[in-house]
Structure formats: C-alpha cells, structure tokens
Amino acid sequence: MKKDSRDAPENVLRYKLDMCSKYGQVVKALELYDEARSDGVQLILHHYNVLLYLCSSPSLLETSGANNLLSVVLSRGLEIYQQMITDKVSPNEATFTSLARIAGAMDDPEMAFSLVKQMEDYHIAPRLRSYGPALFGFCRKLMPEGAYEVDSHMLASAVEPEEPELSALLKLSSDVKRADKVYELLHRLRRTVRQVSEPTAKVIEDWFNSESASEVGKKHWDVNKVREGIVRRGGGWHGEGWLGSGKWRLVRTGIDDNGVCHSCAQKLVCIDIDPKETEDFASSLTKLANQRVKDNFGKFRV
C-alpha cells in the first residue's frame, strides 16, 4: 500500500514551515530547518523562501519575544541562502527580495543593491519591492549617489517608483541640498502621483520653506524660451529649472467650482497635463463617441 505523500518528510516540513510563517514563528522555523538538515530532508525552493521570508522580517521577532536574536536570525538567513546555492536550488524574485530585506535590516544598503543586481545573473526581473531596502537604506543614511544609482537602475529595468520611493528621494535631495534633483523629483511626482499624501506634502513644504530653496534659481532667463517650453510641454511646465530667487510664499489652498483659488483669487487657466496625456484623452473621447454615436462621427473629428 502506497504511503500518503502528505506524510513524506519534505511535505511535513513544508506544512510546519507554512504554519511558522502564518504565526510569525521565526525561531521555531530555524529549529525545523536545523532538524531537517540533520535528518537529510531534501529542501526545495518553497522551503528556502519561507525560511528567508521569516528571517527577513524583523517585526516577526518582536511578536515572538526574541528581539535579542535579531542579528543571529539575520545572519542565519544569509547562511541559509548559501546552503540553498550549495544545494543547487535556483532562487527566484521572492528569494532575492527577502535577501535584500535582510541586508536592509542589517543597515547595509550596498549589500541590498548588490543582491538586486545579482538577479540579472539568474534572468530574474526585479520588482518594485526588490529595490525598497536599498533605496530607503541609502536615503535614510543620507547617501545620495547610492540612492540615485538605485533609482536609475529601477528605470532601466522598467520599474516605476511610486509615491513612497519618490518621496524618500525628494526628502534626501532636499536634505543634501540637491536643488536640481528636487526639481526633477517634484515633476516626477506631478506626473505620476499628482495628489500626494500628507507626509509627502510635508516633505515638499519643508523644501520650499528651507534656506536652500530661497537661494537657488536663475537671475536671468529667456522669456521666449520659457513660453515655448510651456506650449511644448503643456500643463504650465516650462522645464527650464528654478527661475528667480528669494523666499517662497507657501500656503495651502483649494479651488472652487469655478476654478478660482481661495488664496490668490486668480482663476485656473490650464489643466496640468502634458501633450501626450492630452492626445490620449482625446483618443479616449473619440473611441467612446464612436461606440455610442456611430453615425458618421468621424467627419466631426478635429
């Protein structure tokens, strides 16, 4: 009679590790790993990924009451990965993301970034979460060149940063007085996020209220070039960098139903979208109209 496959050692180990993951029992998981190694149980990718996930989650140590084991657990995570490679078990994106988080918990953004770069050796495409430990680590340690390199690597890998990443880069750039990067990141936020969260709004306010913000800016510029830039780029964005200098007047305000600002009483004169967005919007309207009113709609297109 064939023995139930669920009773096979590797399957029993998988179940127990999954339970450890569910309840955040990192210490118990490491005990199971050591026991499995002693018993000669063959570990597969899932086993290793669960173990690395647990080792990469310092918050789980708090729930298990084992804060003093943090450094030991992080080291065990790296050790387990080395064993995984020795066993010729090919890693995947989740593997490298957990390893990058281990490096981040060790306050080593360089290692975290190095691990992301290694993904290419295995033909693995990194995801946004893969970059977080390196990017936030560099930002936290005020290491701008490292952070900007991570950002460039993300874009080259077709990974688009979202508000948390852009906000961290913006704060870093403001803290190290990189006005050129602040300018760039503000426009990236404008294009990709638009309505920012309160923490990001505070980062933006801190920049404009800073002494650095009052000191940057061209004293002379070509007015015609600025006008041409606004027309070409749309949305009131000239793209010529900081113009003028001096202290900024910064207030929080709103727009009424008629497009009039509650603070300056001026009426909104344009919508902040670029030509590509305008074209996409027009195409969407055309498609919608064609679907609803098919009778010779094409002749009315501009």
From TrEMBL:
Pfam families hit by this protein: PPR_long
> What keywords is this UniProt entry annotated with?
Repeat
Its GO biological process annotations read:
tRNA 5'-leader removal
Domain PROP1-like PPR stretches: 2-215
From the Swiss-Prot or TrEMBL record, what is one GO molecular function term? ribonuclease P activity
| PANTHER family reported in the protein's UniProt record | MITOCHONDRIAL RIBONUCLEASE P CATALYTIC SUBUNIT (PTHR13547:SF1), PTHR13547
Protein name, per record: Proteinaceous RNase P 1
Lineage here is: Eukaryota, Viridiplantae, Streptophyta, Embryophyta, Tracheophyta
